[in-house]
Amino acid sequence: MYYPWWYVPGLTAPMLIAIIAVVHVFVSHYAVGGGILIALENQFAIKTHDKSYRDYWYQHARFFVLLTVAFGAITGVGIWWTIALASPLATEMLIRTFVFGWAIEWVFFIVEIVAAFLMYYFWMRLPEKTHILIAWIYALAAWISLVLITGITAFMLDSRGLFAHWNETGNFWHAFFNIQFLPQTVIRTGAAILLAALYVFLHASWTFRNVGTAKTNNSNNSANNNSTNRELFDKIVRRMSRPLIFGIVTVLLGVVWWFVLLSPDVLLVMERSVLLNILLVLFFGLCGLITLLVILGPIMNPRSINVGFAVCLFIFGLAALGSAEFIREAVRKPWIVDQVVLGNQIYANEVAERQKTGFLRESHWQQLPTEKIQYGGMVFMYHCNNCHATDHGLSAVGPLLYGESKEKIAATIKNLNRPTLSMPPWSGTDEELDALAEFLLTIRPVENP
Ligand code: HEC
Question: Which residues of 384-419 are buried (b: 16+ CB within 10 A; e: fewer)?
Fold first, then answer.
């Protein structure tokens, strides 16, 4: 085989990727949307000579830079760590196809990080015009990095090109401008702005958590302070309801566009899966709930916003985004990279040949076991481990085979991609199939007599 296998007990490696990736998405989208909001509001505060409003955004920028740079970097590296171990072949293929895309991406990361530090550390010292410019450079660089990475992740779902088929031309641009590129860019841009506005609610309601309740007992001074803070907080809430609504509407339009362009295969996978149907309902339900809360709260009763409300809204936003990401990942099966790399760690065009000459290959990573059940176990690790745990854990195969005979198990493996659509075709010889079936018998729970 090309690489060693990697088994994450119980959780499975792809679920580990999913967890790290979703956490990363929560921060990386804020890095983009927050950049746009800071640029807009900083410029607005300067133009309207509102010093206290600008001071709030200075405070927010501190929270923003700390969170996005530190946490974004850690989780971003975490993604590379897991994908390189769990799906090395697909990772290699994506690097080869998009080598300049990654390179450009990293250049924009550098611009982003430098601009973020200049924006925050020189907030008070730079001339206003320069500061506006730097904030916009940050926002633009961050958004371009989102666009670049979206071209690559959208390609993994649907490799058909907008202008020409990448698999016929091998051209970088044909891969980058794939069918799902535009709708996914729209969805991610909307989600970035939506999420950033939710972070601002969270941060501002915490910062001003005492304005509504503080007793004005000591002096006139503190009473004055309190009411200016109250006005400032009201202003933040009022101004942030616009990006919230804009974000939700953009996400929903993007999702509809995404649906319209979905390939029939993917649509079928989605329609057949109960879990994905539930997640879809959850996603639209959460979007509706957020819209309702934004109308009832920030728009109609801006004074009702407190930390609890902001936390709820934030959690609903994360849940909506998380379920959308989960759906996008799940509908890709059996592919890791659409039409190119399969979930059993081989290229799609190798299946027929491996059915004749064998799925497992000796490599410098490992020797092939001579003992049959061990051999079957290794077939499992390459052919099934990317989606199933063994006997216990997520989508564990053992329980799925409860009570089945060896013949029945062998027949399931032989027709792995029929009638289920989410699994790659069986890609080994009959001897390998027999060894795998023997191994599966050892992890299958036995029927009570
Ligand atoms: C790319 C991901 C993927 C790989 C690789 C994969 N499966 Fe699956 N498998 C699934 C999914 C998803 C389902 C749920 C089926 C559905 O609802 O479409 C499933 C369902 C099953 C089931 C229960 C349904 C049935 O047809 O009986 C068994 C058994 C099973 N897989 C065994 C295996 C074995 C054995 C392997 C390795 C030879 C394997 N799977 C490889 C994704 C995968």
Answer: bbbbbbbeebeebbbeebeebeeeebbebbeebeee
Share of the chain above pLDDT 70, in %: 97
User: What is the spatial distance between Cα 371 and Cα 352, in angstroms, rounded to a whole number?
Assistant: 25
Chain centre distance of CA 38: 23
The position carrying tokens 């990401």 is: 325
Report how far ligand 1's centroid is from the alpha carbon of 198 (Å).
38
Let me know whether 260 and 156 are in one domain.
Answer: yes
**Judgement on whether residues 369 and 227 belong to the same structural domain of the protein:** no
Indicate the top mutation candidate among 87, 423, 442 to test ligand 1's pocket, ranked by most ligand atoms within 8 A of CB: 423
Separation CA 273–CA 55 (nearest Å): 50
**pTM of the complete model beyond 0.90:** yes
Residue nearest to atom 17 of ligand 1 (CA): 273
With b for 16 or more beta-carbon neighbours within 10 A and e for fewer, the 303-312 pattern comes to: eebbeebbee
Q: Domain limits at 390?
A: 348-443
For residue 386, which atom of ligand 1 is closest to its CA? Answer: 5
- The CA distance from 380 to 14, in Å, is 15
Contact criterion met (CB below 8 Å) for 426 and 434: no
The predicted structure's pLDDT at residue 174: 95
Contact yes or no for 289/221 (Cβ under 8 A)? no
Cα separation, 277 vs 268, whole angstroms: 12
The answer to whether 410 touches 344, Cβ cutoff 8 Å, is no
Contact 346, 358 (CB under 8 A): no
Contact call for residues 383 and 427 (beta carbons, < 8 A): yes
Q: To which residue do tokens 């509102």 refer?
A: 50
Length of the chain: 449
- For residues 332 and 363, membership in a common domain is answered with no
Same domain membership, residue 248 and residue 174: yes
Kindly state if the Cβ of 427 falls inside 6 Å of ligand 1.
Answer: no
**Residue 210 — pLDDT band, cuts 50, 70, 90?**
confident
Ligand 1, from 266, 422, 433: best to mutate by most atoms within 8 Å of Cβ? 422
